[in-house]
Amino acid sequence: MPRSLAVLTAALLLIATAASADAPEPRRTIDLDRFMGRWHEILRTPNDHQRDCWAASQVWTRRAPNDFSIVQSCHRGSRDGRVTTFNTRARVTDTTTNAKFEASFFAGLIRQRYWVIDIAPDYSWMIATTADGQFPALLSRSPTMSAAQQTQLRNRMAELGLPTRQLIQR
Fold it and tell me: Between 3.30.980.10, 3.40.50.800, 2.130.10.10, 2.40.128.20, what CATH number should domain 24-169 receive?
């Protein structure tokens, strides 16, 4: 096989493998009534949508049994910067655990799957990620979290098989 064809084949296999990767399975069943409300982003993986986004949060509100409105907001430039808001919807895609969601953006033109991998028994924090496991985040009911607890939960994310090297605090 010519070298260029071998390189192309290897690259296509790598892309196919990466595209089919999934996040670890959720560890707990979500009580949707307890899950509703405000979640503050403590750690996240950088992404284009949240460039220059500080103190991000999201408020989940039930619309129907498995259908939700989500209002996402963040401050641009700094924690005290101008607030921008983005509205989206989500629906449960796994009613066995209630921990897998599909969010739709721009009136359904863009869809993304998210999984809640772990959640505190008292619903004080959650570890969530895209369904491919590549964009994990730590969210909390409180806008702040101690450094010790952040370290503990970052380690928990790594134990669960999520990439933690790029996590940032905003």
Answer: 2.40.128.20
